[in-house]
Automatic annotation (TrEMBL):
<dbReference type="InterPro" id="IPR027417">
    <property type="entry name" value="P-loop_NTPase"/>
</dbReference>
<feature type="domain" description="ABC transporter">
    <location>
        <begin position="86"/>
        <end position="319"/>
    </location>
</feature>
<dbReference type="GO" id="GO:0005524">
    <property type="term" value="F:ATP binding"/>
</dbReference>
<comment type="similarity">
    <text>Belongs to the ABC transporter superfamily.</text>
</comment>
<dbReference type="InterPro" id="IPR003593">
    <property type="entry name" value="AAA+_ATPase"/>
</dbReference>
<keyword id="KW-0536">Nodulation</keyword>
<dbReference type="InterPro" id="IPR050763">
    <property type="entry name" value="ABC_transporter_ATP-binding"/>
</dbReference>
<keyword id="KW-0813">Transport</keyword>
<protein>
    <submittedName>
        <fullName>ABC transporter ATP-binding protein</fullName>
    </submittedName>
</protein>
<dbReference type="InterPro" id="IPR003439">
    <property type="entry name" value="ABC_transporter-like_ATP-bd"/>
</dbReference>
<dbReference type="Pfam" id="PF00005">
    <property type="entry name" value="ABC_tran"/>
</dbReference>
<keyword id="KW-0067">ATP-binding</keyword>
<keyword id="KW-0547">Nucleotide-binding</keyword>
Amino acid sequence: MTSHQQRVQEAVHFFDNNDTFLGFRKLLDCAMDTQNMHIYQDAIALTDWKEKNPKEIETFSAKAKELLEKIAQIHVEPHKANDLVLQANDLTKSYGSQKFSLGPISLTLSKGQVFGLVGENGNGKTTLLRILAKEIAPTNGTLRYQFSTKIQSDYDLRTKLIYIPQRTDKWYGSLLDNLRFVLANYGERPEEIETRVLLMVARLGLWNYKHLKWSELSSGYKMRFELARTLLRKPEILLLDEPLANLDVLAQQIILEDLKAICNSVNNPIALILSSQQLFEVEKISDKVIFLKNGQYNPLTTAENDSEKPLIIEIDTSASREELLSIFENFALTKLTFNGGVYTAYFNAETLFSNAIVALGTANIQLTYIRDISASTRRFFVN
Ligand SMILES: Nc1ncnc2c1ncn2[C@@H]1O[C@H](COP(=O)(O)OP(=O)(O)OP(=O)(O)O)[C@@H](O)[C@H]1O
């Protein structure tokens, strides 16, 4: 089975389990990968039908699965794996007389990879993104890009390497007209412009907003519009500064999942770095988390497996410190801290999370939340 067929299978599976919302977004990803205008038109027609018949879930599911069968028949040539696009060596940056200094930072980024850039306010996230985007020059260090086609002008570079800042400019006219304009300017075949734009609108959840103007969109939808506008130009590196700002938790999760899926396209993968203060959400979808503190870099792979690492658990409970100490009496508990909201318990590396859960469950205390943060970037924030 090819990787394209596997992605199609996943989408079918979501429909089989009645997760139609997610399944449909996966269907649109697979449709997009085909680059086949008949499939695009079918997916657009299905989006329109779904919006007009929101209650007919069974019929919608059947129609979606029928289209997925068609999509699976189309050959999608996979992009070559580990395609390195960016290599940064010993980047540093200082601003005149300011105390702040960034780096040295070295990193390599390949297509399809997602890096999360986390840190509290003023720790250098925007500075790093702007250096990587070639918006500002580093004080020291080197940057190398390797795009699929030769870069002959600044315009070429701005198509392949796209930076979306926290605050974006106002635009005029409708969302749809603005997207049509992007592709018209970009030299896309006129007969394909409408189809490509409408599929992107569908994929980014903008279908019911396509006739709205800038002032009529919420900030979350303005960000989605910026993404649509950017993705139509098929970037190879995408740098997003705080795309989650102003979004509620559910909307954050959805946009992150969407970004991950879009960047993992079978034939057109994108390298993505996004900055955020939402650690849990970002590390869930990141291949690597870059943690910046006072401009200093701490690389962490989320799959990191260090047997020496202590077990660290966050616990939200109405139980007292004494009760918790007594529950963990026979555990190798090295530290128990309270930040006024949640407790953080530190155990030696041999302690199993499952044993801690059993002890808390057996004690029958009120618990609203428990999380193993041993491998999470969050552990750097709780100290
Ligand atoms: N153009 C500039 N001139 C002088 N100092 C700057 C400039 N841009 C940023 N700084 C300083 O560099 C430091 C890092 O800022 P930066 O915006 O990169 O951090 P950040 O992690 O993105 O923060 P935030 O989340 O608040 O945007 C801050 O102390 C900031 O005041």
